[in-house]
Design brief:
The complex is a heterodimer of chains A (202) and B (308). Chain A is mainly α. Chain A has helices at residues 3-13, 20-39, 42-58, 69-90, 105-113, 117-120, 125-136, 139-150, 155-162, 166-187. The chains are: A mainly alpha (202), B alpha+beta (308).
């Protein structure tokens, strides 16, 4: 854990709750973006993001720096969103039941990484083209590109999240970028800058 | 060098994850390869579009978080009070424990249910009237709705909850002492749920705000604070319409990690999703971390009271 982060955490743990605001400010984009991808609803994403930070605050003492802080937060947020989705799914169906922890994991993992350009982002044409191009990428490429470009995680953090070697992260991101580029060229609904481009897709 | 290696370096450059040596090598290549130079610009532009897809978090996010945590740390004890949403539920939980503890030895000794010996849970059996059963149910059904309105819970009510919350623990160890605490907190009326005493007098402050309303009115009796617990204890003719069992769940958020021996429950509905039944000792340890407690009827058609 770097000393700056350690310093902030120490201050928070010693009772300076305001210091936690720094951690919120620095991580809220990532947390909120993840929540939005998972629950696809602004109000829910806001609530769940807040819950994630509040829970992080309450269990900050247990964060030992084994993983990077933003990865720790990512996992925490992911769990909270999974719980929410699970509950939502069960609503009006079952009111009292014991469930196996991992039984629905796979399904919601998928929900995590899928972007829905139509519902999520009503953006400019170019932006929509990019979002659509992204959605046509392989799961592997889309996921890593989202973590890198949209969320802004570092290579190291992504390596940790996806349990990959750093070298694999590097080359996969590069390939994902190239895949998106060729996807955008193919689609026709691409930004103008590709129209006159005669070069072969890479 | 393979072409992909330059593309890789371009990607690393865009991410700022490139060493000076790599940068040098790439720059040299870019100066004589217009294709790669163009690729760099295209990928850079794509990246900008991608980043623009990132939704902007609303200001309310930070504000909401800080609103929640700042008072919590500054006024440790009070923060917990304020976070309790179900005043009446807290009171009811305490009352039920007390009543159960008080009544059990006298009335339910014959109840030799195996499960009442469940070690990891605070498990009790007690006899209740049909009316009070319905009352609990009503309270349970009201819980989610009360939650929505709980933002407006009065401070007086919150104070009472704190006393009730504190008593909750005392109640587990020392039922009578807790009963005294409860009276002091003005939450004695809930004992009407199980007690069936019927002095129709001063309605305690805590009872007027939320779930207790349904508890009290459904049971159609309200005891005065003074008349409550000990009356229950001496009450010999509690209608015995069958044993109802209760479990007290003290649970914590999953991020806190699951303590040893904890039993995980899911799917209660309402606002709280996860419940961990933990040993009482563990529960006490959790108190410092801001505990949440659930009182639930055991069984298929489970009633539920959540205290958050």
């Amino acid at each position: 854990m770097d000393t700056r982060l350690q310093g902030i955490i120490d201050r928070v743990l010693s009772g300076e709750a305001n210091a936690f605001g720094t951690l919120v400010s620095e991580n809220q984009n990532k947390v909120y973006a993840l929540a939005m991808r998972m629950v696809r609803n602004e109000q829910d994403a806001l609530d769940l993001s807040q819950e994630a930070f509040i829970r992080a605050y309450r269990s900050l003492g247990q964060y030992r720096g084994e993983s990077s802080f933003s990865v720790w937060l990512y996992r925490l947020t992911q769990n909270i969103c999974l719980d929410f989705l699970r509950k939502k799914k069960k609503q009006n169906v079952i009111s009292f039941v014991y469930t196996d922890e991992d039984s629905e994991q796979t399904e919601f993992e998928a929900a995590d990484t899928s972007l829905s350009p139509e519902t999520l982002f009503e953006q400019s044409e170019t932006r929509r083209a990019v979002a659509e191009g992204l959605s046509r990428l392989s799961e592997e490429h889309r996921r890593i590109l989202v973590l890198r470009e949209i969320d802004g995680y570092s290579y190291e953090e992504i390596a940790e999240m996806l349990s990959l070697e750093l070298g694999t992260v590097k080359s996969r991101i590069a390939r994902a970028r190239l895949a998106l580029r060729s996807e955008l060229r193919k689609s026709g609904g691409v930004p103008d800058r590709y129209a006159a481009d005669e070069r072969k897709g890479v | 060098m393979e072409h992909f290696e330059y593309e890789l370096l371009i990607s690393c450059l865009l991410d700022g994850e490139i060493t000076p040596q790599e940068k040098e090598k790439l720059d040299a290549h870019l100066s004589r390869c217009p294709e790669c130079a163009a690729l760099l610009e295209e990928l850079r532009a794509d990246g900008e579009e991608l980043r623009a897809l990132s939704p902007e978090p609303p200001k309310a996010l930070l504000e909401g978080v800080m609103r929640e945590i700042v008072p919590e740390k500054q006024e440790k004890k009070k923060a917990k009070i304020l976070s309790f949403r179900y005043i009446a539920a807290a009171a009811a939980a305490v009352a039920v424990i007390i009543c159960a503890a008080a009544v059990l030895p006298m009335l339910r000794n014959r109840d030799s249910d195996k499960s009442s010996a469940t070690p990891e849970a605070y498990y009790m059996s007690t006899a209740t009237s049909g009316a009070s059963g319905a009352a609990r149910k009503a309270a349970a059904e009201d819980a989610p709705m009360n939650m929505a309105a709980s933002g407006g819970v009065s401070y007086a009510g919150d104070m009472a909850t704190d006393s009730a919350g504190a008593s909750l623990y005392a109640a587990m160890a020392e039922p009578e002492a807790a009963a005294d605490n409860m009276e002091a907190a003005g939450v004695g009326s809930v004992s009407a749920v199980t007690g069936g005493t019927s002095a129709e007098e001063a309605k305690p402050a805590a009872a007027s705000e939320s779930g207790t309303d349904s508890v009290s009115s459904a049971s159609s009796t309200e005891s005065t604070p003074g008349a409550s617990q000990r009356d229950v204890k001496e009450e010999p003719d509690i209608p015995d319409t069958g044993a109802r069992r209760f479990r007290i769940y003290i649970f914590m958020s999953p991020s806190d990690g699951l303590p040893e021996g904890a039993e995980r429950l899911e799917g209660f509905g309402g606002d709280a999703e996860k419940y961990f039944v933990v040993p009482l000792d563990t529960a006490r340890e959790l108190e410092s971390r801001g505990f949440e407690a659930v009182l639930s009827e055991d069984g298929e058609d489970a009633g539920l009271i959540v205290i958050r």
